[in-house]
Amino acid sequence: MEGDTAPLNILGESKAGYVLSNVAEVVERILTFVPTKNLFRIASVCRLWRNCARRVLRTRQRFTWLSASGSSIYEEHVLLKSMTQDLENICLLPQTALVMVNHENFSESVSNRHRKARRCEEEVESDPVKKLKRLLPSSCDILGIVTPGIVVTPSGSPNSPPQEHEEGEAGFSLLFSAMDGITIRPFHFCKKTLSEMAMEEAGLINNPDLKVVLLFDYDTYKSGGGRFLNKLLEPLSQSNVLIVGGQVEDVFSINTSCCSPGSFGAVGLTFSGSKIQGASVLIEQDINSPKAAEATIQRLKAANIPEKNTMGFMFACVGRGHNIYNDQRNVEADAFRKIFSNIPLLGFFGNGEIGCDRIVKENYTLSETDADGLQHSFTTVMSLVHFG
What we know:
Helices cover 27% and strands 29% of the residues. The protein is an alpha+beta fold and 388 residues long. The chain has 2 domains: 8-59, Monooxygenase (Up-down Bundle), CATH 1.20.1280; 61-388, no CATH class. Helix 3 packs across helix 5 (47-59) and helix 4 packs antiparallel against helix 5. It holds the Pfam family F-box. It comes from Culter alburnus.
């Protein structure tokens, strides 16, 4: 198995066998169509195939996403069920995962209730967080978010219509591989751990390469939470960085051992590197017609962000959606797709929004604001992040 060519009993004594055991260009071309999990198996066949597999893996330096919606009564969350199958077919090695689910059917108590109702099905993992960690590589950093509602684009097709799930079960997993020239770092702070040193270690301050921050706070409505969030946002608001996110209901798969029970905090991802570009617009609370929403999202075009290797994010208030648009559903997601037909859109409905009108390209920033100017309610933050 460690020879220069594949064994004859595998490839056969034929012209095809000779090509597949000697011509790296052909082997490498074929392997571009093979899912990542199978590439690792193929790499053990021979040295040629191993080297080709490694080169193919290095070209898969971007992102993909898996999403799901529907009902899974008495079963695990619909996203976990979908990921069990779909992870077999992805073509990258996940290094970082941003997972968002609605709160229905994704908690220890719910899982225990479902397990009790299905005692005969031992294959159903009782703890959804443990199953999520088991599904992804052990080296993958997982940032998990639980919110009231979810925005997803169906898996695998960026030009599929995005869907706003204000109710019902839905979720997505945004998976990033290692990317040359781009650094992704997860972070978590509570009132015990937030400090200038901790922020610097996370790449949030004193980092000239920082371009984008996805920031999600939880329970900051409690006493002291506002001061905590301002302390975190103030240095970011004064930097040439795109900050987007919002307030969520819960977080998981993050080391929260430092937190007191019921404590507030914030989690997120930092994206650093010269290849990254970003832009965001704020759909104000008084915008209540599809035409006005589309006009606001249209302003993102001014950023001239490339559509290839770009992800769209939508962070909306639970008070918007059909409540704002005279019971019309999917208004803002539809407006995004109309303007950006080839960019997938992911996000949530939460309890507060973080962001503003801003473009980050090289050393240019569209607008500046303070910590208070980044925090909103009854709005939607729509953004683009380009990964080179």
